[in-house]
């Protein structure tokens, strides 16, 4: 009697399915802004981001501080420069703010806000939204510019939301800016996480032209401009140092 192992041929294993290719990365055509200055990346920014990203979003009531706006005491308006601002994020993730010289340039500032995207969308449907980002005032000899602060405390319509961090633009951030390059103003959704089904996997965005008003070295304000002067969603973002 022959050996059973010799009478049974080994069955070849089924070939493993091919590994799907990674999602395509857009070829970036964004250019450097004319006001961009080169600087060494600060590792402390990334440390702050990693630490405070894990903090819970808080909602204690807090009085919104008196902040400089675009009106002088005598009632005259203050003219400012025009910039492009984009608020974007996954619906149940934190919303980020990107500031660009115009839609064709690389971001000059990206701040991860202490608010979920769907919460901000809801606030904007209810009326005017005032976002205040506060940081501590620095000594006179400190030359750190206001928008270079690594850490902010955020208030939305007078309620403390938590902590925001300035961060370098990620590859995903740059891809979003590249896709939105033809858009000067508008709102909508972009395809996002393929593993998340339904609206939660979509990247929501609001892009608008903002009037940037510099009150002092310790205060700046961004006013959203309506494309046709109508009473659309109103949004003001205040950057201020206090103390």
From TrEMBL:
Extent of Pro residues compositional bias: 14-25
Pfam families, sorted: DUF617
Sequence segments annotated as region (Disordered): 1-25
InterPro entries (alphabetical): MIZ1-like_pln (IPR006460)
Residue ranges, compositional bias (Low complexity): 1-13
Name used for this protein in its record: Protein MIZU-KUSSEI 1
